[in-house]
Amino acid sequence: MKKNRMTYLDMAKGIGILFMIVGHTISLGWQKDLIYSFHMPLFFVCSGMTMVLSNNWLEWREAAKKSAKRLLLPALVLFMVMTLWTYLVEGQFDAAYTKDFALNRLASLLLASGSDVMAFGKEVAAIGLLWFLPALFFARLLLDALHLLMPKKWESLVLLAWALVLILHLPLPLALDLGLAGMGFVDIGIWLRERLPQWEQEGKKKIATGDKALIGAGIFWFLAFLLQEKSAVPAFDMAQRDYGITFLGLAMAACGSLSLILLCRKLEKYVRADGFLATCGRYSMLLLSIHYLGYLPYLYYGSLFPMGVVRCLFRLVLEVCFSFFLILWKKKKEIQQEVWWSRLAFLAVFLLQMNYLLFCRFPGGLQYDSINQLTQVVTGQYSNHHPIYHTLWLTLGAKLAEILGGDLTLGVFFFTVMQVLVFSYMVSYLLKTLQQIGIRQRYLGIILGYFLVFPYHLFFAAYVNKDTLFTCCGVIFVVSFYRLSCAHFAGSKRADVCHMLIGGLGVSLLRSNGLVAIGILFFIFLLGHKKDGESIRLAVMGCVVAISVVLVAGLRLFPEIGQGYESEKFSMPIQQIARVIAEEEHLSKEERQAVDALCPEVSHMTGQTFSQFIHDNYNPWRADEIKGQIQFWGRDAYLKKHKLAYLKLWLSLGLRYPNTYFEAWVRMTNGYWGWRGHSDYHHFVYKNDLGVKNVILLSKVNQAVNAYLLFMQENTIMKYFLHPSSAWWCCVVFLLMQSRKKRERGNLYVLPLTVAWTLFVAVPLNGEVRYVYILYGCLPFLAAILFDRTAE
Q: Is residue 574 a contact partner of residue 639, using CB atoms and an 8 Å limit?
């Protein structure tokens, strides 16, 4: 960053460029008129404040060359890129259309108008916001020339140029008329630059001249704006060549620009030179380019949002994030590396997932469980069958959409965006930690690529289900636990404690087996507690367990919240008893009657007893066929009431048929450790009765992504790497390798242990990747700090 930059000017330009994006997105109204009343003149004024007038014609010619390179050349390149992009998108390649298209675009380039105009008897389309660049070029060039031609009267000629623009109202080639209008604002910038040092040297006064100018210009701009809104004349808009109420409109724009610049100067000492607004202003040309080229994508994703404020918000976020991603890439050597990797990871993951979400998966990937939770949100009849605290996240998204006038579809989208933000932050936090302990950059790049394009990450980040947020919290918990064990991170202990606490609560509350996993982990470390340095981690885990128990137990104070299906807790016992029946092992009359009494309603539909139904419908890979009948016929209350009797039945059968029980367990779990079973994850439209509309804007892109996902999961070699069993055995191997190491490195064994307990507390389905997705989030971190010697 240059030392002689004026930060307050960068701040003013940053505000102006952000207002430009907002103004181009919102509908007509006083808000749009307010922005347009000063935002483009502001850039002319700022340009004047940095302009150095030439002393002779040789300097003028050199300045003209530099300005052409900085303004006209980018305008030409951007116009050509947009022309080619538009031509390809429209998809008409016949000779007649191509000729007409080329002539029309050439006419637009020659006029460089910000609005459609009539020329040579035909309407010429606008060039868009690029009008500003040739207009600024001519404003600076002509003003400098006037200064050389008539050094004593050049400012009077500027006023004459304004008068000509207002009277003739004639569009000239290359936006020359807009350059004449802008010339006056550039002159105001030169005037302000000359006055500011004088105002600062006045000494202490009750009200300094600069403050008087700020207040006076602000009041004049506001009153002029109110008068404009009350009048019948078109609002001030330079691109449309509408200047409001004659000279009053130009004065209003000048005062609005002056007041904002002076305000930024007052605030300059309170902000960093590399802050958000200053960075936006410093790279305003980049933001302008991204905004211009982002118009075509906006036409697609903007149609998803009927509310202008939502369209504006996401257009602003996407274009600013993409711009900052490019800025970050350019400034790699200027920024502290841990900050660089952290920000790069967040922006890269966020931008990829948001584009995938908007163009292929809007409002997010849906499946049966998420539809069930959304039904709770709509009806208000909540249940803890799926963790209630995850359902409340969905409710938050729905409430935000309701406040903004949107529907449930928008609510699902808001939830998915929040999930993508958490996922992006997880990757950012992980990579920041690895960079801080000295992991080589090529490994950091590989890990970032893994989180970007690995099939399960690409799919699950925008997938509406509890397992994604659970995984994010689990990884944050694991990473923060490691940080708290290393002296290297002593300076960030408070932040790491907060991360561990929040991550642990997420693990405990976002999945039904999470609290059990954290509880077992706490018990293990309580028994193995030896060092004072471990006290803080133990205390945090204790807080997590205590808070989670209170929050889970507190649900019983709300009888309107259902406590979920009792049969879910008995998935494995139900499956083991079902296998005994399916293999026609002997059951006593009383035992068979107990099984039939569990769901006698089945006989009304099938004519079979429940034990006969189990015999015919037993599925060794999942318990849903059996427990689903218990849930469908509302027999969970009966199961809960006779829980002890059925536990006794389960134990007695287990003692008689241990091999059958073991085989049932193997068939239910070998999808996680024995390379059995197979799951296909790809995006498709999931139908529902809630009015949630799945939209795929770019079907060919979605097909390409699905083809990639399925290829990676079905390929002869890759399917073994992507199988949950591979992740499980990697975790086991890491645990064994770590246990052989003599050096202490924060009790690394806790990391795979956490994952292991999470995996085996409950296994309702065989080989379901989403249940063990946390392994795929943790493994890169474990591998990096285990194998890279620089981390030792």
A: no
Residue with tokens 């075509």: 296
The SS3 call for residue 361 is coil
pLDDT tens digits along 53-100: 999 999 999 999 999 999 999 999 999 999 999 998 887 888 888 999
Listed residue (654, 510, 475) closest to 577, CA to CA: 654
Are the CB atoms for 751 and 781 separated by under 8 Å? yes
Question: In the numeric block, which tokens belong to residue 540?
Answer: 């945090």
Q: What token pair was written down for 121?
A: 């008897």
The stretch 518-537 carries a mean pLDDT of 73
Q: Are 373 and 386 in contact (CB under 8 A)?
A: yes
Q: Is 726 helix (H, G, I), strand (E, B) or coil?
A: helix
Q: In the structure encoding, which two tokens stand for residue 492, read together?
A: 């960030």
Concatenated DSSP letters of 541-556 = HHHHHHHHHHHHHHGG
The answer for 112, left when phi > 0, alpha when psi is -120 to 50, beta otherwise, is left
- The Cα-based distances of 387 to 255, 376, 390, 504, 515 in angstroms read 56, 12, 5, 15, 11
Q: What is the 3-state secondary structure (H, E, C) of 248-259?
A: HHHHHHHHHHHH
The answer to whether the CB of 497 falls within 8 A of the CB of 540 is yes
CA 323 from chain center: how many Å? 15
Both tokens of 749, joined, read 């064994």
Is residue 440 helix, strand or coil? coil
Contact 760, 668 (CB under 8 A): no
**Least confidently predicted of 106-110, 223-227, 525-529, 581-585:** 525-529
Q: Give CA separation, 25 vs 20, 391, 503, in Å.
A: 9, 33, 37
Compute CA distances 725 → 53, 447, 665, 722, 769, whole Å. 71, 21, 15, 8, 10
133 contacts 139 by C-beta, under 8 angstroms:
no
Residue 273 and residue 334 in contact, taking contact as beta carbons nearer than 8 Å: no
**363 preceded by a cis bond (ω within 30 of 0):** yes
Q: pLDDT digit string (tens) for 143-186?
A: 999 888 887 776 777 777 777 777 777 788 899 889 988 988 99
| E strand intervals along 479-543 | none
Angle at 655 between CA 573 and CA 674, to 5 degrees: 55
User: Which residue type, as a one-letter code, is found at position 228?
Assistant: Q
First-residue to last-residue Cα distance in the chain: 35
How far apart (Å, rounded) are the C-alpha atoms in residues 241 and 531? Answer: 74
Closest CA relative to residue 394, chosen from 380, 405, 1: 380
Whose structure tokens read 């623009």? 165
Strand partners, 765: 622
Tens-digit pLDDT profile for residues 5-24: 789 999 999 999 999 999 99
CA distance 370 to 368: 6
Neighbours of 516 (CB within 10 A): 15
Measured between alpha carbons, how far is 6 from 758 in angstroms, rounded to an integer? 54
> Nearest Cα to 728, choosing from 677, 765, 784, 767?
767
C-alpha distance from residue 764 to each of 147, 567, 574, 595, 626 (Å): 81, 11, 11, 20, 12
**DSSP-based three-state secondary structure for 463:** strand
The whole-angstrom separation of Cα 296 and Cα 81 is 12
Torsion of CA 20, 21, 22, 28, to 10 degrees: 70
Question: Are the CB atoms for 237 and 244 separated by under 8 Å?
Answer: no
Give the amino acid at 349.
V
Helix (H/G/I), strand (E/B), else coil: 274: coil
d(CA 169, CA 178): 10
Residue spans of alpha helices (H) in 150-283? 154-168, 176-200, 209-230, 246-267, 276-282
Q: Is the pLDDT of residue 374 over 80?
A: yes
User: What contacts 525, CB < 8 A, 6 or more positions away?
Assistant: 534, 537, 538, 541, 750
Q: What are phi and psi of 172, to 5 degrees?
A: -110, 160
3-state secondary structure 290-322: HHHHCHHHHHHHHHHCCCHHHHHHHHHHHHHHH
